[in-house]
Amino acid sequence: MTVRRLAASAYVPLGRVHPRVSRVGFGGYRVDDRSDVHREALREALVAGVSLVDTSTNYADGHSEILVGEVVRDVVARGAARRENLVLVTKAGYVQGSNQREAVRRARAGTPWSEMTEYAPDCWHCISPDFLRDQLTSSLERLAMPKVDVLLLHNPEYFLTDAAHRGVPQGEAREAFYDRLARAFRHLESEAAAGRIGAYGVSSNTFVVPHDKEDAVSLERVLASAGPGFAVVQMPFNPLETGAKEPLHTADGRSVLDVAKNAGLGVLVNRPLNAFSARGLVRFAAFQPDVLRELGHTADWDAERMMPLASYLDAEFRTPAGADATLAQRTLLALLGTPGVDVALVGMRRPAYVRDVLGAFA
Q: Is the pLDDT confidence value at 320 over 70?
């Protein structure tokens, strides 16, 4: 099958990281090197010109990073993409699965990773320098690459949430939190100097909540302790969860997108098509026929579900998509039309999803 490449208009600079990245990035949350379908989807996306891939140490317990490394190397070797044109992002912070088992083994051996937040029985969290050093080493081994372009601290607000649950006063918890971030940043500056990462930043779900909320992460305070290698932030943004653009991030009424762009940062947004609302999960994309069958729904049900969502996009975002655009295409164009948003990360784990998403830029 001939793959249609993205148009030149589908690229923007990503802050100080890269002068030209695709406005949609391949989200690696649910992909796995043991799936041929996931492998083909990533290959098709890269061949079509998607130039940013986002993964994490905990996605599929490391198998997402393995897939990314294998497919990128294959596509580059075949001449379908150039490594210097790609931006590979990974994240570190979660301690789950095999990572948690290693944490337990180390603790029993008397060599624990320091400053571990034991948030839940199956989900710990850590951003200490010794942990980040080992996590980056493991990521580079799974990717089979000497360097990753961007390393993000993955939802460090777990520390704040845990502190609130334990009754730690908010002021005390925040001082400890930003001290931990500052030490993590100093370590990541050393990793950049050593050439193991190109840049670093923070991915946080609570960049987008009101600034006085107990687990809110302040980008202004983050920047105050960051070094020159700090270049990227990531946060949720979709048609129902619009906190990224709302004037609630700072006490003087600015949004986190305002703060990020004023600082010259690259901005990635995640979960563009999956919104959590009072009614539960709302998906701003069509379901595949096999998924509909699994859910016990019909194509007519899906079409009826999408009609009010499309009307909502038109009313609230004035989406520029044509009348024949799919719901996913309309959603992405609406979100990417928001000032300050550079790249939307989309879970494109099936080739059909890749084609749907890229059709927004046809």
A: yes
